[in-house]
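Record passed on here:
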Amino acid sequence: MKTNEKNIFYVIAICFVSMLSSCKKDGGWMHPVPSDPDPVKLAIADSVQTFRVTPSASTEADRMQFRGNHNDMQATGFYVAPNSTITVTVKVNAGTTGARLAIGTPFRDNIRPVRQYLDLQPGTQSFTVDQYGGLVYVIYTANNYTTTGEIELTFGDGFIPVPYFQKGKQHMVNGLRHWTHLRTLLQMWCFLPTVQLWWPTWMKLFFIRGRINS
């Protein structure tokens, strides 16, 4: 029995040495890892954007008979700092529906009571941002599915572009490299000084079991 075990060990050792000796830096099965593609800068929103009327959240909720409302805010790709002054120009291309700017994160963070809403009028106008600031959205809705309309917004002073990642156009590693240089901007997005997550024991067990099964 011991002799057979020794023979098996010798055979495995010889195969391993042969495999290593066949490896070469300039060939064989050891291929060099391809380098990252040329970095592509993160996208930045245009200062002039067009928005169209969409159904309101309440209209969608009535149609779907679903308690969770859909979000009727359209992203702009801009951030505004607390207590800053912003300037926006509105050009109405079609329709008579009024639009609003919504500034800030959802109000359930227990820090800001509500978002800041700014009614827009045709022409150039300036507003003072509240003490929280935040990301900027456009609410341009109607309580039906037939109303149409289009406006063109020009974001002027006070609007800070928020770079974003484009799937299929940027390499993830390069994207992360860009984000490391934007820590100051990212800190402006965070309204919670600390976040503590608590998991019940039964959820931990379920998570571990799910990872094992997958």
User: Anything to note?
Assistant: Residues 24-29, 188-199, 201-214 have pLDDT under 50 and may be disordered. Helices lie at 2-21, 57-64, 172-180, 183-189, 201-213. The first strand starts at residue 48 and ends at 52. Residues 48-161 form a domain with the Jelly Rolls fold (CATH 2.60.120.1250).
